[in-house]
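Exercise (ungraded).
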Amino acid sequence: MQKEHVNLWRDAIDDDAERVWTSIREDVAPPLRHAYATKDALRPYRWLLAAAIAAVMVTGAWNLALMKQLADVHADYVMASLAIDLSENRLATLHSLYGESLSADAVEALKDLVRISQDPNIQLTALDLLLDNHELSKDQDVEALLQQVRHNGHFVEAAVRARSIRT
Amino acid sequence: MKKRLFITLLMSTLAATASHADVLSVDNVTSDFRLFITVWEGEIDLKPASDDKVRVDVECEQGNDAAREVNEQGLRVISSDQSLPELRKSDDKVTFKAAEQAGVCQIEVTAPQSVRTQLRINDKGKITVSNWRARVTTWSAGGDVTLLDHQAPFSVTAMSGDANIEYRGATLEADSAATAANGVVKLSLAGEPPMTLRTQARWGEVATDLDAEFKREQIDNASWSVATLAGGGPIVTLRNLNSDIVITRGD
């Protein structure tokens, strides 16, 4: 079968047959590693790769430091905003805390808001944040806080009951 | 005999109640001021003024309970300082207060509409605010709270009644909230102002004719339906402790 195939080719290329077959046999392709991946060719890329890795590491460390700094600034901003006696600032600040983990200072600030704020919406939003973050996980924690609420006590208590009944 | 009995009853009723009407006002109130109105029981109606005055038309009626208050010596108090409503102005605040001793008071207030305002009824009564252009924080312990043609941030609470907000602003400047219990929270919007709606009706339903898609967020046992209007913006929290929330297109 193979011989028949070769003969067909020989007939096709006619007089040049012998020369073509000889050159095909002699023209051995060099190994790929040799041709395209010599040590010399890789050397500058290695430095580039090392530089890139170093840059990523430095940037990562800088990012972490920056994020921590931003988190600290945000925490300071949150505490300052919660202390300001303007409902619009407080509500926006409270809304910005959704989904965030709360520092110990923030937890105390939220409890203070529930205790002293006159605006029921501020009290309920602060209460939601405390409950979402499991800062009032024990019944006695809730009772202690409710006893210290200065304004709208019955309403705040009704809101807590409504949420706990729902479980 | 019957006629004499009727006259006696009428006289005793009139004697048991005392009414008080007055008009109080202060001048030169700019947008830097904040206005605080606190009433124990009655109604508050706030409207814009055409000048820089805060003017309060007040009419109070003391019932039997107020008239029969007894002091520490066991004597019946006929009147006291707290039985008279008062309007005061300080460097940055205008304060009106009608204490429990003042009785049931009907209050009509006109003030510059750019003044941030807090309105509060401690016992029973409804609050209506019309055409206001500055932030309003308002709550009633027992009655409806209504904002008509409102175009500014708000914090509204009806502890036992409906919270109605007719919002007509093209945008909203800051986060806002409305809460009700034993009533319905209703928000109507003109157009689709950029805002994020967070709604929670614990024992009721949230219903709307808006096209916006509401997504459910669950945090522990607190479930919220959240929608973004026109790309989102300030957060508006609508909460009902035991009934429905209705959000509709305004006229």
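Further reading is listed at the end of the chapter. For now, observe: The interface with chain A takes residues 118, 120, 135, 137, 139, 141, 153, 155-157, 159, 173-179, 181, 202-203, 219-222, 234-235, 237, 239, 241-242 of chain B (CB under 8 Å). The first helix of chain B runs from residue 2 to 16.
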